[in-house]
Design brief:
mainly alpha, 68% helix
């Protein structure tokens, strides 16, 4: 996206969201890693653009959710390496989302984020933990408990 020629427009949030949506639905074993890479570039580019906070917040939230989805639905036949990577990215993305400096933060530090998208994030995180850490319920329980305390 970013390496286009100088006469082509730079990618906008719609371009990044389309790529993230495609990665959610693909069958590649490394789709979580690819999605996280796109999310990082998306967040970096959004800092440079002047977009109204409500529109930006919704798209950033959905971008985080796309990465969580890619992790949660890592193919079950993916190698152990890719499943461990997806679990690591799931946790990192969830924590990064919760600590993100959201556009439009008020002086009190509160944001006006879409509760439906936030609930979806928590659901995807739990699904990902269940899918990726299914064989070790103790590890899964500790991870979920610590994530919700943060």
């Amino acid at each position: 996206l970013e390496r286009g020629s100088s006469y082509l427009p730079k990618p906008d949030f719609i371009s990044y969201r389309l790529v993230l949506t495609a990665l959610e639905h693909c069958k590649h074993p490394d789709k979580a890693l690819r999605a996280r890479s796109v999310l990082d570039r998306f967040l970096q580019s959004m800092k440079k653009q002047n977009i109204l906070p409500p529109l930006l917040q919704d798209n950033i939230q959905e971008a985080f959710n796309s990465v969580l989805t890619a992790c949660a639905y890592t193919p079950s036949n993916a190698s152990v390496h890719f499943r461990h990577e997806a679990a690591r990215i799931l946790v990192e993305t969830f924590r990064d989302m919760n600590s993100y400096d959201w556009p439009g933060n008020g002086e009190d530090g509160n944001t006006k984020r879409n509760n439906g998208s936030i609930q979806e994030s928590y659901t995807l995180f739990i699904q990902g933990c269940s899918h990726l850490l299914g064989s070790s319920p103790c590890e899964r329980q500790v991870l979920i408990t610590s994530a919700f305390r943060e």
